[in-house]
Amino acid sequence: MRVGFVGLGRMGAHMARNLSGAGFELTLWNRSREKADALAAELGCATAWTPSAVSDAVDVVITMLADDPSSDAVHFGADGLFSGGAQTYVEMGTMSPDHIRRLAQGAPEGANVIDAPVSGAIQAAADAQLVIMAGCPPDVAAPLTPLFDAMGKETLCLGQTGRGAVIKLAVNSLIHGINQTLAEAMTLAEAAGIEPEAAFDVIEASAACAPMLKYRRPLYLDEAAHPVTFTVALARKDMEVTADLARKLGIDMPQGQSTLDILRRAEADGYAARDMASILTYMRENKT
Predict the structure, then answer these.
(1) Taking the chain (288 residues) in consecutive chunks of 10 residues, what is each chunk's mean pLDDT?
(2) I need a labelling partner for 206 at 20 to 30 A (CA). Which of 22, 110, 148, 281 fits?
(3) Domains with residue ranges and CATH for the chain
(4) CA-based nearest residue to 201, from 186, 188, 191, 187
(5) Any alpha helices (H) in the chain, and if so which ranges?
């Protein structure tokens, strides 16, 4: 199977490496061409000058993009993916359900669009341990199983286009809520004189500990000493898309709105490019 991979950021580059390691013939494209060239040299695979050229060269295109506008430009723009000849397009970034519907409606005749966002951080992407949430029935996902198995540990099919995007927003709203609550709990403990490492030891041993707290512990305890894995700006984007979906569905998400408000304030205070673990620092600095 010939596979195009578009979007070689923190997650995408690892996912492309795993596909290459599984023996798939890859063609790469990235907005910053030097990233595509460097990864292609490492993997011994091809690059393309435009998204359209990627689509013409492959059977399946996988995109791992940051947001709806990026995906719009790559699919619908001049020399976009949809002007090429691929028959299957798999969007694995965190997008709005409305955007996924636009992709499905705007795809070339006979082509298939599947939303298949992932859960898992950079290390999970590197280790092919992602959870993949596919907005399609199992029979539609079946031909792509070798691809999904090369990138992840489990693929869950949600039955209909757009449902993968919905459940990814639900999962991320929980993750960002945990991130915020952890920041508040740590700030409370520290204000009472408990050392950060001791506080985290107790939280990690408690019933409240989620897996993300374990693998993100180094970032919470010393954010500056570790590479950024997921920025505050991306967290804010996720929660804005989630809040918009909640409004359209007529449901109330008060905790989600509170998390979004704090992310917006932190971003305005210069935290946009910092890891989302920096919300702990933000809460320490804004205790009153």
Answers:
(1) 96 98 98 96 98 98 97 96 97 97 96 97 96 98 98 98 98 98 97 98 96 95 95 97 97 97 98 98 89
(2) 281
(3) 2-159 (3.40.50.720), 166-285 (1.10.1040.10)
(4) 186
(5) 12-21, 33-43, 51-57, 68-76, 97-106, 122-126, 138-141, 145-151, 163-191, 196-205, 211-215, 217-221, 232-249, 254-266, 279-285
